[in-house]
Design goal:
Shape: elongated
Radius of gyration: 24 Å
Strand content: under 5%
Low-confidence stretches: none
Number of strands: 0
Amino acid sequence: VICRFEVQYGIHAGYDDVNYEIRKKNVPLSQIDFLRDKISGWLLKIIQEKIAKKETACIPWEDFDHQFSVVFDRVRQRELVDFTLESPPKLEDIHSQVKIRPCYLRQLDLIGCTDSEIVEAVSDYLRADVNRHRWIENEFIDVETATDFMNKLKRFWSTQKKIIKITEKQLGEEEKGQLLLEKCKSRQETIRGISPPEPTVVGTYHALAEEPVLGWHPSWEKLLSDQEGV
């Protein structure tokens, strides 16, 4: 029987005090929520595991301090966090894109991509889109940085397109497009000197193909125009 207890009511689930303590560590305001949520999620996971094992639900300070330091270093270095690891694209969203066939997928159809390649492209496109918006929202990057990244990718695409046209004359049109796509997918490009999550480069290429400011088939502009005229 519990004889004595005290209940306190507050707002914001007590996060104000937590946020205040994190802010004292010189963490940017825009990144406090990320750090707090990362630590909270880790704490919940460890506590639940201990309870399931019938262990004392306590966490040594050394363990907490180590985990906090790891996340804090990521924030301090403004690491480009992959927000989609915890919330990957939903299957219904992927299937919806496959069904409506937006421009970037029709560009892949022009070069004979398989169904599995189409699904992979949708996943990369959606993940890159989510991360790009979350990075800007959380001030990891700004619009100017995102634009510069896209411009670098476009320049690489343009260079590779010219090289393939000169050196791969024996290939068919679809094969040239497939080769160009693979070269761009394997491009290692950084953002502010930091390597972004894996889907970023190819997903951004699909976003550029969606605009469309680039394409894979040598005659992509004419073929897309013909489709729209049908």
